[in-house]
Amino acid sequence: MVIQRWQSVLLLIAVVLMCIFCATPYANRTAVETAALTPVFVSDAPVFLVLNIAIAVLLFIAIFMFKNLRLQMKVTLITIVLIVASLVTSGIIIYASMPDAALIWTGGVLLLIAALICAVFALRFMRKDNNLLRSYDRLR
To answer: Regarding beta strands 101-103 and 37-40, do their DSSP bridges make them parallel or antiparallel, or are they unpaired?
Structure first.
């Protein structure tokens, strides 16, 4: 029986979504002197950019940890926590330091939520594989 590695595909999708999030604006801010909207990028907050790049790197590393399933599950769980931290951080940045800014729900925030969903489903598939391997070990 061949175990399908859908979690690797989901982790790759999450990596791509995190990279796109780092390059797209996630909020619009109205300028004081003009009424024009200016986009707010992740690179405007360097710590936030480093956090999101670290998430993408950890997700990419987790793809190649398929030989050590328990470690892959731990790294994926850490990235899920970091993605939630990134969501909270983006909200804090917008509402605390830029009260006149509005989130772009169809852009950056949706990319983070989609990456979170992909990582959660990848962890779910890893747990299924782990349970399947344990059941085979019991049969031996």
So the answer is: unpaired
80, 120 contact by CB (below 8 A) = yes
Of 35, 12, 37, nearest to 25 by C-alpha is 37
Q: How is residue 120 written in tokens? A: 């959660």
Tokens read off for 124: 């779910």
**Is the distance from CB of 63 to CB of 56 less than 8 angstroms?**
no
The pTM of the full predicted model, rounded to 2 decimals, is: 0.86
Q: How far apart are CA 8 and CA 64, in angstroms?
A: 8
Give me 52's structure tokens: 């999101």
For 88-117, the pLDDT digits (tens) are 988 888 888 777 777 777 778 889 999 999
